Amino acid sequence: MEKIMNRRILSVKERGKWLFLELDGAQFLLIHLGMGGDLLHFSPGDTLPEKYKFKFHFMNGSGFTINFWWFGYIHLIDKKQLNTHKLTHALGLSPLDEAFTLEYFKQILNSRKSRVKSFLLNQKRVAEIGNVYVQDILFRAQLHPNRKMNTLTVQEVESLYFSMKKTLLKSIEKGGLIHERDFYGNKGRFSEEDFLVAYKTGKHCPLCATPIEKIKTGNTSSYICPTCQK
Predict the structure, then answer these.
(1) Which CATH number fits domain 2-81: 2.30.30.30, 3.40.50.720, 3.20.190.10, 3.50.50.60?
(2) Multiple choice CATH, 102-224, 3.40.50.300, 1.10.8.50, 3.40.250.10, 3.30.465.10
(3) pLDDT (tens digit, 9 = 90+) per residue, 41-96?
(4) Is the entire prediction scored with pTM above 0.85?
(5) Residue 1 in this model has a pLDDT that exceeds 80
(6) Read out DSSP for 17-46?
(7) Contact 220, 131 (CB under 8 A)
(8) Sequence-separated (6 or more) residues with CB below 8 Å from residue 204
(9) 8 A C-beta contact, residue 153 and residue 124
């Protein structure tokens, strides 16, 4: 960490589940919270979190701490390495990125034979979607997680595209999931009450009242309405 002492943060950008902190001196600090964690600001005199892995101080006495539960990353790289970094160079775009247009989405799924859920969770194809959000994304689009991408109709592709955006924006409007906190410690308000089918095994589908089922899809579990999702 001595390499970043007395350095200025010029910009902060996100892509998928990564944060890119641009430093002076043509370097970037890449941060990934892995399976979950916190990146929390503190002011001079504030009580720090009980647990954290890293602590960064600014010249005015404020700063931020980073804690992650499993598989977190902090990498310092040169700017010229951005296009070759093994964990970030191949990241896909977020559905909320301006460049993630409907036409772009159609191009990246063109003739793909992978299952729709696997495709959406592949960070090289679509960044930012995890196993919580993908449940309601597929329900809104009325797609079964095991559908093959190359079987989707034009209308289904468009429905899936807008479903991704709507689901992610709803979470952002509520500050993220209830177990998450923003930079200033505010807890998210997006809870199971807001989910449509995710983690609601046995409860009624909000569209047709069919009981929601939990099924195994590859290495993950999926929550579906067997009537609405085909």
Answers:
(1) 3.20.190.10
(2) 1.10.8.50
(3) 999 999 999 899 999 999 999 999 999 888 889 999 999 999 999 889 899 999 99
(4) yes
(5) no
(6) TEEEEEETTTEEEEEE-TTSEEEEEE-TTP
(7) yes
(8) 210, 211, 212
(9) no
Q: Are 27 and 77 in contact (CB under 8 A)?
A: yes
Output DSSP code: residue 47.
P
Is residue 95 within 8 Å of 121, Cβ to Cβ? no
Separation of first and last alpha carbons in the chain: 51
Is 140 strand, coil or helix? helix
Domain ranges of the chain: 2-81, 102-224
Q: Which amino acid is at 170?
A: K
For 98-135, how does the pLDDT look when each residue is reduced to its tens digit (9 = 90+)?
999 999 999 998 878 899 999 999 999 999 899 999 99
Provide the CA 35 distance to its chain's centre, in angstroms. Answer: 11
Chain-centroid distance of CA 77 in Å reads 22
Buried b / exposed e along 17-42 (16+ C-beta atoms within 10 A): bbbbbbbeeebbbbbbbeeebbbbeb
Helix orientation angle between 133-140 and 154-173, rounded to the nearest 10 degrees: 140
Q: Tell me the one-letter amino acid at 15.
A: R
Nearest to 116 by CA among 96, 134, 91: 134
Phi then psi for residue 102, to 5 deg, are -60, -40
